[in-house]
Amino acid sequence: MLTIKEAFLTENIYYQRAEKITVEKLVLHSVGVGQPNAAVFLKNWNKPTYTRACVHAFIDANNGVVYQTMPWDWRAPHAGGSWLNNNAIGVELCESSYIKYIGQTDRFNIINHAAALAHAKVTYMSAVELFAYLCLRFNLNPLEDIYSHNEAHDDHGLASDHSDPEHYWDQLGTGYTMDGFRKDVANAMNGEVTVTVTEQKKEEKEMYPTLKRGARGKDVMLLQKLLEATGYPCGKAGIDGDFGAGTEAAVEKFQIEYSLTPDKIVGPATWTALVNAPNKAGDAKLQTELTAVRTSADMLCARVEEAVKIFRTGNGNE
Questions:
Q1: Could you say which of 163, 179, 200 is where a domain stops?
Q2: What's the structural domain count of the chain?
Q3: How far is the C-alpha of 210 from the C-alpha of 36, rounded, in Å?
Q4: Same domain for 97 and 77?
Q5: Which among 129, 145, 135, 121 is positioned nearest to 192, based on CA atoms?
Q6: Which residue(s) pair with 4 in the sheet?
Q7: 24: Cβ–Cβ under 8 A, 6 or more apart, which residues?
Q8: Which domain holds residue 101?
Q9: Mind spelling out the 3-state secondary structure of 154-223?
Q10: First to last CA, the chain
Q11: Cα 253 to chain center, whole Å?
C-alpha cells in the first residue's frame, strides 16, 4: 500500500504562485546527496528564500512514504527551466546515507552496500506505485510519458544536464533501469493500486481560503479589509462581507498591478501578495500586522481586524 502524506511547501515561492499546469509527463529524479530522510528536504525547501527549484514530492528512503510538496497540477521548476516545468510532475527519490559523494561529482563511495541497496529498493518500490497512481489519475501512458531527469536531458533535450537517478542505481548495482521502471509501472496499473492519502492539517490547508464572486462571510470581510488597507476600495458597498462587483473589480485591479493572473479569484498567490503589499496610508503598525500574519483564516481575520482598529484609532477615525 502506498502512503502519500501532504506536506505542502507553503512558504516556497512556487507554491505561493499557485500556477496550474496540464500534466503530460512524469519525471523521476533523485536528490544527489546521501540523505534518506524526506523531512530534511521539506525543512530546507519550505522557505521564501529557496528559489532555485521545487518538486511535487519526495520519497523517503527509510519507509517509502511519499511526501507530497505541491498539488500535482501546480507548476514546480524541477527540470532546469524547461518545457517539463510547465507540463510535468517531478518526484525526488531520497538517497541512502550509506553513500558519500566525491566532491561536486555524481560519483560516490559506498559505505555499507547492503544497507544502501535496501534504501534504494524502498524508494524504487514506492516510486512504481506512485507513478502507477499518477498515470491512472492523469490518463498517461507509462511506456511513453515517464522520463528520468537523465533521459529528459540526454534523449529529449528538455532538461538540465543531470544523470539522476540512473547514476544512483548503476553505482549501487541495483539492476534498476528506466525501461524496467516503466514496465513495472505498467504492470502495477494492471493490478490494484491502493493509496492512502493523509491530508495536511486543516489549519494549514485553510490558511488561504479560495474566494470568488458570490462568496460571503468573514473571509470575504477580511479580504475587503486588506484591499481597502492597501489602496483598492471595494466600491459603494465597502466592507460588507459580500464578494460582489465592487470587490471583484478591486481584486482584478490588484492582480493586474501586482502581475498576477487577473482571474478575479483570490487564491494563495493573491492572498500572499495582499498580505505583503504596503498599505497606502503608510501606517507602520498596520503593515507589521499584515506582513506577520500567516496562520489560519480565523487568526488572520482577528489579527487584521485588530490592526485596522489600531490604524483607525491612531488616525482619529474612531
A1: 200
A2: 2
A3: 35
A4: yes
A5: 129
A6: 66, 197
A7: 87, 88, 140, 145
A8: 2-200
A9: HCCCCCCCCCCCHHHHHHHCCCCCHHHHHHHHHHHHHCCCCEEEECCCHHHHCCCCCECCCCECHHHHHH
A10: 60
A11: 26
Contacts of 183 (CB under 8 A, 6+ apart): 143
- CATH number, domain of 31, equals 3.40.80.10
Residues 120 and 62 in one domain: yes
Cell 489549519, located at residue: 203
The gap from C-alpha 23 to its chain's centroid, in whole angstroms, comes to 15
Are 115 and 216 contained in the same domain? no
Same domain? For 95 and 192 the reply is yes
pLDDT tens for each residue of the chain, 318 residues long: 899 999 999 989 999 999 999 999 999 999 999 999 898 899 889 988 999 899 999 999 999 999 999 999 999 999 986 799 999 999 999 999 999 999 999 999 999 999 999 999 999 999 999 999 999 999 999 999 999 999 999 999 999 999 999 999 999 999 999 999 999 999 999 987 778 888 766 544 555 688 999 999 988 998 998 898 888 999 999 999 999 999 999 999 988 887 777 889 998 778 877 876 666 555 454 444 444 443 344 444 444 445 555 444 444 443
- Whether residues 231 and 166 fall in one domain: no
Provide the whole-model pTM: 0.66
Residues 275 and 186 in one domain: no
Domain boundary among 173, 200, 227: 200
